Predict the 3D structure of the following.
Amino acid sequence: MKITRIETYPAEIVVRPELAIKGSKGAHRVSPFLIVRVDTDEGISGAGEATTMPRWSGETSATANAIIEEILAPAVIGLDPLDVEALDYAMDRVVNHNWFTKAAIEMACWDIRGIAESKPVYELLGGPHRSLTIPARFSMAAYDPETAAAKAAERVGWGFTTIKVKVGTVPAEDIARVKAVRAAVGPDIKMVIDANCGWDCDTAIRCCKELEDCNLSLIEQPTPDGDYAAIAKLRSAVNVPVMADDMCFDLVHARELIRNEGCDVISVYPGKNGGIRKSAEIVKFAAEHGVACSIGSNLEWDVSTAAMGHLTIGLQNMQVEEFPGDILGPWYHEDRIVTEPLAIEGNTCTIPDKPGLGVTVDWEKMERYRAAAKG
């Protein structure tokens, strides 16, 4: 089998206003997606998604589109889509980083392989290792304390048992927000804080100490990107598990985090890590060193969320039972682009047991989005 063509479809989708995310890196109110279709000489096509956000990875849907059309597509057309390692090698030779862009092509090839072998991707990864219905936490934006408390209580009423509160803004406001949420949800709901690299090391330690009475279950990315010493110092100063996310894009980063004893958990997901295969490498490496993994998110649409679900189900070390992750992205958006949207109910997302990624893109709808993007 050979790749014969790659088509790209940009779309900007509004986040439902009541669910807009606000944290240390700003507000997220519109998601710029690039949906990718990979065709083969055997008539099998696969779908991928680049969930781009410049302040997160430096990519936009426009840069992703240009890099695919001008550089990546010429490098991979003619290759076997079933040989994902060779595909990754070919893409890494011609473009550095651009993880979400590469992931779009890579996950489409996993989709093709699953369809060709009549297996869901989680089986290709060695699963299933858990239920197809995956538990998730709710990510609470950096609202004022009163708003955060009210929304958190509402989400618990919807069935969420873990609430993640965005911090990393003004420390006093962060502390007030977290304390208000804890008071609103009671003592039995798990609480996570996520600074998205927004605190320096000393501020992170001070804030975490001041929040000890909130009984946090996880501290996510409390310190700056690239500072392995800082996250290790924070981890040694607190008695709460520490998760690395914004500073772990590839296996090199994971090795440095673990070598520096900087985390108890690593947040992985195909977009951030450059694809399903590279995510799996990190998950397996972490398992060898006694470090758990969970699923992260960039507010994906259905295609990338399906890829995230297959990774979670396919690998034992994706410990979402103890550390629920973020896998509700499609539910945040005002439109869906697959014929049978993923079932997202309360605090769970269910992945279909169909071949490949298990979702079918409505290409006619994507054609309309593409035409609108061209003006």
Q: What stands out?
A: The chain has a mean pLDDT of 96. The longest strand covers residues 3-14. DSSP finds 14 helices and 15 strands in the chain.
